[in-house]
TrEMBL record:
Residues 93-132 are annotated as: Disordered. Gene3D superfamilies: Serum amyloid A protein. One of its GO terms (cellular component) is high-density lipoprotein particle. The gene is Saa. Major acute phase reactant. Apolipoprotein of the HDL complex. InterPro entries: Serum_amyloid_A, Synovial_Prolif_Regulator. Keywords: Acute phase, HDL, Signal. GO terms for biological process: acute-phase response. It comes from Vidua chalybeata (Village indigobird). SMART domains: SAA. This is Serum amyloid A protein. Residues 1-18 form the signal peptide. The keyword NAD does not apply. Belongs to the SAA family. Pfam families: SAA.
Length: 132
């Protein structure tokens, strides 16, 4: 009887400490990537919403950097979402907006700065309410 109890306990310990199969690890990583991407997209939307609400001249670069910064802090999925959203927005705006290639280049610089972990306050204009 004691032998069987020892075997059962040993089996439980070995099974509990065994590594997960690779497929399970891949699924967990994929789920986390998607979750981070969704939360990163939400961060980008929040920065856009704040930019529209503030309606402050010269603050767009700050909000670009802040949205990308917040999204990238979520992890690889958030950084991916920030890059995709920023590139899509700039590609769309470059055809619609009359601001030109220079403004698009500066927006992309602010996007990259935020995604790389740079402080968004580098682009914060003087006088922008502290709420943002």
């Amino acid at each position: 009887m004691r032998l069987w109890v020892c075997i059962a306990l040993l089996s439980t310990v070995l099974c509990a400490s065994a590594d997960r199969p690779r497929i399970v690890e891949g699924i967990i990583r994929a789920r986390q990537f998607v979750w981070d991407a969704a939360r990163g997209a939400h961060d980008m939307f929040r920065a856009y919403k704040d930019m529209r609400e503030a309606n402050y001249k010269g603050a767009d670069k700050y909000f670009h950097a802040r949205g990308n910064y917040d999204a990238a802090r979520r992890g690889p999925g958030g950084a991916w979402a920030a890059r995709v959203i920023s590139d899509a927005r700039e590609n769309w705006q470059s055809g619609v907006s009359g601001r030109g290639a220079e403004d698009t280049r500066l927006d992309q610089e602010a996007n990259a700065w935020g995604r790389s972990g740079g402080d968004p306050n580098r682009y914060r204009p003087k006088g922008l309410p502290s709420k943002y």
